Amino acid sequence: MRVIVATGNKDKVKEIKEILSDMDALVVTMKDAGVSAEPEEDGATFLENAVIKAKAVAEKAAKSSDWKDAVVMADDSGLVIDALNGEPGIYSARYMGHDTSYREKNANLIERMDNVPEEERSARFVCAVAAVCPGGKILTAEAAMEGRIAYEERGQGGFGYDPIFYLPEFDRTSAELSPEEKNSISHRGKALRMMREKLTD
Hints:
The protein is of the alpha/beta class. Helices cover 31% and strands 23% of the residues.
């Protein structure tokens, strides 16, 4: 099996390859496959946006003699904060603008949560994965990782909002976990393992 990952995010690609490392498949990026697409992510949910991305790249791959039989997989993921009415949600990557650093985004969210008590700081990372198979069949999977918003950034690992996502059961943020620990419990790890089972079936 050959799988094209429909994202230009290097950190996501690294995690996806790690999580799918024990799957009997060649996992490549769009760049590796010589395929490019930038569809408008105008879906109302993570899952709708994942499907939009996977279908757009699959259409391009179908026109390639080298990759027309590949599975195209896309994920859409983000941070959902209950006290902020679900923000940043599906706009997580675009929150405060694409060119704004995550350090600035994290600082802004911490400031907005300044007066929110511990018991109301609940949040979750959500990941939806869509895979377009040769022939057009679409498989989907979705999972979440529950936690809280921290009071300050902690940790050097991970990426994005990981430094402010606190996991009470570990007494660490997602950015303080090793890659192996994070992948074993993360939203993306759970969703990709569900997708791996569907693909191998």
